[in-house]
Amino acid sequence: MNSALIGGFTIVWLIAAYLIYGRHLRRRLVQPDDSRPTPAQTFCDECDFKPARPAVLFGHHFSSIAGAGPIVGPVIAVAFFGWGVSLIWILVAVVLMGAAHDYLALMASVRHGGRSIPDIAQDVVGRRSRILFQVFVLVTLILVVAAFMDVATRSFLDKPEIVLASLGLIPLAMFFGLLVNRGGVGLVPATLFALVVLGALIWLGTLIPMALHSVSPSDYPEAVRVVSLGLPVPTARIVWYVVLAIYGLVASVLPVWLLLQPRDYIASWILVVGMGLGFAGLFVSHPTINAQWFTAPMTGQGPVWPMLFILIACGAISGFHSIVASGTTAKQLAREGHGLFIGYGAMLTEGALAVLALLAVAAGLAWSDLYRMVVAPGGAGAIVAFGTGFGTFTAPLVGAAFGVFIGITMINAFVMTTLDTTVRLSRFLVGEMGGRRSPVLNNRWLASLMAVVPAFLLVATGGQNVLWPMFAAANQLVAGLTLIVLSAWLVGMKRPMWYTLAPAVVMLVTTMGALAWQGWRFLVGFDPVKGPNLLLGGLASVLLVLALAVVNDAVVVLRRKQSGIAS
Fold it and tell me: Residue 344 and residue 96: Cα distance in Å, rounded?
């Protein structure tokens, strides 16, 4: 099949979804009122609450939700399950589930003073659900911080040429923030200036790779100079962990207009331009799909249902998005009318990225190469597979080698962006758990430390690698629980709840199925060599019990509210 046809259909499908279904949700459920003050206006403190321009806030939201997930998930899914079923899940779920989940989570938070979805759960479901939800989400966020600290460190060790641009983007973003918010410089000229400087940093990074560990100049023949401190790799890894932990801590307490907004906005241009280049290359080269439409599940991956539906999260539906939407984005929304563009639109854009990643490996690589990179032991991995396929697409436009570099840069640009956003989200959640009467938990530095320190200990000991197999199910459990909370919120406003309740049932049944399968695999159907994994098996059981407890509370509340409306 011609991959360009699928790419063209995807674009038309997503645009139609925004214009038809997205606007229907806005009109039928949200009914935005621009005369109603948003939390960004009511509680503006120039630190966490600060109205942002729609383009800037879209950049923040998109950068925060679109890390490596919408690329890595589809790439692995194509290799293990086939491209056909993966494509169908992405296109259906992103419209009917993921984008609605993100948009309504954003607007529910806006209507509740910028509070997070777990905190809102007390108002619409109950206090026990709020506590369970908050603890679970905080543990999930700490794991995300640890994972992205590790991903960023691995990127710096493997690709020293990205270090200059990654670190240089920090002062560039702060200068951009000062220009736009304090210097009176218009957004357009400031953006052009920032993009030129960012392009120069990326180019200089290829000429001057910067490494903490020992590297050979012969490994970088195009470089003018290789800067290396010559540390052993284990030492360099710990140093990078410390640097990233300090960065995440400081970034989480700085005013959003100074670093968070401008950094994410500038970084989003890398992905937007890269996606544009990728689709343009796809239409020019229009390679034939080489991957299999459907692949019989391989040993250890589990059945297509439910495992495919938790493997492809970002790009289809992801619980982490609701935490971003109700954590940082809701505190920066200037008008309720901007919510559809930012919440629904950003998720559809991420869906387009997921399809691009899918096609990059399904059509840009031979099936044998995809298997060797992703499935076979010791393979290069999903990120390299995507970059290689992306280079095939863009070869007629920029050359294969530079296309590969652009593809990998697209992913790395968002690693630190998601890192500092997640630390800030953790700070918000700790403060909400403590309430207004707890000055310790509401202290910005101490609250951030409660996320940074456990995350650092995890990566320093390799603990995140032990817990990570459970993250996919945990993330989708957050999505299901969020949709339950949103259903109760809609019932309370006397709006139809089926737009969220139907996806909630799908996600909760799927997640519970995945947790049951993982629990069985870890405790009973274990690897004969490694034996049972009591930690992961127990964790899967705990998550399953948590889901059942919250669902039980939600069903009671929904029935009571429905009865009240009927009477």
Answer: 11
Query: Per-block average pLDDT, block size 10, for the chain (567 residues)?
Result: 93 98 97 96 93 94 86 90 94 97 98 92 76 83 86 84 89 95 93 94 90 87 87 93 94 93 91 91 91 72 85 92 95 97 97 95 88 80 86 88 79 77 91 76 88 91 74 86 91 91 92 87 71 80 81 76 59
d(CA 82, CA 84): 6
Which tokens in the block code for residue 384? 């390299």
Residue with tokens 């031979």: 366
Task: Output DSSP code: residue 287.
Answer: P
- Closest among 533, 531, 529, 503 to 518, alpha carbons compared: 533
Q: Beta strands 210-213 and 227-231: pairing type? A: parallel
CA distances from 88 to 85, 369, 502 (A): 5, 24, 18
* 84 contacts 297 by C-beta, under 8 angstroms: no
Alpha helices, DSSP H, located in 213-260: 233-253
For residue 94, how far is the Cα from the chain centroid?
14
Q: CA 427, CA 356: separation in Å to the nearest integer?
A: 34
The gap between the terminal CA atoms of the chain, to the nearest Å, is 56
Burial bucket for residue 417 (CB in 10 Å: 0-12, 13-18, 19+):
buried
Q: Give CA separation, 428 vs 108, 438, 480, in Å.
A: 16, 13, 21
> pTM of the prediction?
0.92
Question: What token pair was written down for 567?
Answer: 């009477």
- 50 phi and psi angles, rounded to 5 deg: -160, 115
Three-class SS state of 458? helix
b/e map 263-276, b = 16+ CB within 10 Å: bbbbbbbbbbebbe
DSSP for 489-553 reads HHHHTT---HHHHHHHHHHHHHHHHHHHHHHHHHHTS-BTTTB--HHHHHHHHHHHHHHHHHHHH
Q: Which residue, chain included where needed, has tokens 């499935």?
A: 375
Reference 76, options 312, 302, 377, 299; nearest CA is 312
Distance from C-alpha of 138 to C-alpha of 247, rounded to nearest angstrom: 20
**Counting beta carbons within 10 angstroms of the beta carbon of residue 184, is it exposed (0 to 12), middle (13 to 18) or buried (19 or more)?**
exposed
Q: What is the pLDDT of residue 374?
A: 86
Please count the other Cβ atoms lying within 10 Å of the Cβ belonging to residue 549: 14
- CB distance 241 to 225 below 8 Å: no
Q: 76-105: per-residue pLDDT in tens?
A: 999 889 999 999 999 999 999 999 999 999
Q: In terms of Cα–Cα distance, which of 212, 208, 213 is closest to 226?
A: 208
- In this prediction, residue 298 carries a pLDDT of 58
**Do 225 and 207 form a contact (C-beta atoms < 8 A)?**
yes
Q: Which amino acid is at 288?
A: T
pLDDT digits (tens, 9 = 90+) for 183-204: 999 999 999 999 999 999 988 9
DSSP states of 56-103 = HHHHHHHHHH-SSHHHHHHHHHHHHH-HHHHHHHHHHHIIIIIHHHHH
If we measure between CA atoms, which residue out of 489, 483, 513 comes closest to residue 501?
A: 483
pLDDT at 351: 97
Distance CA 230, CA 215 (A): 7
**pLDDT score at 567:** 43
Could you give the angle at which helices 498-523 and 534-566 cross, rounded to 10 degrees?
160
3-state secondary structure of 27: helix
